[in-house]
Automatic annotation (TrEMBL):
Residue span(s) of domain Nudix hydrolase: 44-175
Family: Belongs to the Nudix hydrolase family.
Cofactor: Mg(2+)
The organism of origin for this protein: Lacticaseibacillus baoqingensis
CDD domains cross-referenced by the UniProt entry: NUDIX_ADPRase_Nudt5_UGPPase_Nudt14 (cd03424)
GO molecular function: hydrolase activity
Keyword Hydrolase included in the entry's annotation: yes
Group of enzyme by EC: hydrolase
Name of the protein described by the UniProt record: NUDIX hydrolase
Amino acid sequence: MFIQPTNETGRILAARTAYSGHIFDVIQQTIETPDGLRVERDLIKHAPAVALLAMTADDQVLVNREYRVGINAEAYALPAGLIDPGETPDAAAKRELEEETGYVAQSLQPLCAVRSSEGMTDEVVHLYYAQVDQKKRIKQHFDRDEFVTSQFVPLPDVIAAVQDGRIASAQSVSALSYYLAFVRNA
């Protein structure tokens, strides 16, 4: 079968840090690929992250609105955030949900992990499905440089927002698609 894991990796011949920031670094590399090519590549070395499709029992989806530098505007997306050093993805998912929205996961189910662009970054985002209760809310704890507005939106409206591009983040589209394809009617 063609789609089988392989242990073949490229051999990094040279690497230097071109930029170092608080969320990612840019590493310039010279690599010998498994098929023998010698290539120059820039790698955005990024901390791993989590994103959550958090829903109520009556199919209300928790959607965040937050400023995002990549589009220099507010974006709509599912709750998400970075995994702290030494933290498990499960613990990060619970923490990020509480910090950004004030809601506590009543249950948490891993969906899958996605990579936004393997051609330039090693970022991996662990996706989760969380059940939440609208009546059970605690105080939000934003990072010092973030402000997030959260609201419950009916699932059909979220699907429509993905279809027409109002929700376009890779992890949001992936989490919703995975849930609809493999979890909802399982």
